Every structure is written in structure tokens, then in C-alpha cells.
Amino acid sequence: MKRVELQPVGTLMEVSTGTRLLDGLLSMKFELDTACGGKGLCATCHVRVHQGGDELTPRTPREERTLRLLDGADGSSRLACQCHVLGEGIVVELPEGVFVQSADALVQLIGHKADYDYLHPITGKTLIGKGKIITRTLMNLFVTLSEELRKLRDEG
After folding, report:
1. Would you call 82 helix, strand, or coil by DSSP?
2. How many domains are contained in the chain?
3. SS3 83
4. 86 plus 124 within the same structural domain
5. Strand 77-79 to strand 46-51: parallel, antiparallel, or no bridges (unpaired)?
6. Where residue 10 sits, what CATH number does that domain have?
7. pLDDT digits (tens, 9 = 90+) for 107-146
8. Planar angle of CA 82, 31, 84, nearest 5 degrees
9. What is the CA radius of gyration of the chain?
10. 103, 77: one domain
């Protein structure tokens, strides 16, 4: 078994060698969305690897393409659905914020302040910042977003 440290929660995750990082996180009951179904086409499982990146499988060409599209991606960025754990000493930072999957998820929050950042599931860009008021005008944006997600799932 290999141990992976998860930040900022400070939890150790134990997985078998070769386990996909996403599968390990899901087994720990972390609520990571997989808008593209784990095909490496979206931002919903974007994590940052602060240590032990060489103990994960190398980036795939698909992962490289997707990371180039992500807002704020850098050299520590990985898609948890595209990398497998090979060794010890890995420290992974989990994303903060919530990836929006549909307008329906936010309708009941119109007029309220966002408790956290709401993020675009394909680009990772902040759509509604923490503390901002959620407005009906933003719902039009999410209708378009829902269509983009449907196309992404169909294409993958």
C-alpha cells in the first residue's frame, strides 16, 4: 500500500500501487465531480501535487491538452482521473470551491451570498466568488454551461 497526504485536510490516503488517484479520493468519500466521466476532458478533478510528482504516472497527452485550458493550472497541476500512484511521498492539494454542474443546483441560492467559490467545470475559472451574491442573471450562464457539459460527455 502507498500513502498519499491530502491537503488542506491533513488526511493520509492508502492505496495500492497503480491505483488511479481519482479512485483513491472517491474511496475516501471526497466529493469530487467527474463532469467528463474521468476521461481527462474537464477541470473537476484538478489537483495540485506539491511533493512526489515523480511517484505518479507521467502526464498523458490528453491531460496536457486539458491542463493548458484550465484557469490557474501550473507545473504542479494534475487531473486525478489521469494519474496513477506508483510510490510514496506524494502530497496532493485538493481543490477549494464547488464545480457547477447545472443551473438547477443554484436556483434555490438566488439572492444569497456564495459560501465558497463556484467554479466552471471545464476551465476551472471562478464563476461566482465566495461572498458574492448569486443572481438570476447568472442562471443564463449556467444554462449554456449545462449544454457544454452535455456535449463534453457525448464527445468523450
Report:
1. coil
2. 2
3. coil
4. no
5. antiparallel
6. 3.10.20.30
7. 777 888 888 787 877 777 887 888 988 887 776 666 666 6
8. 20
9. 16
10. no
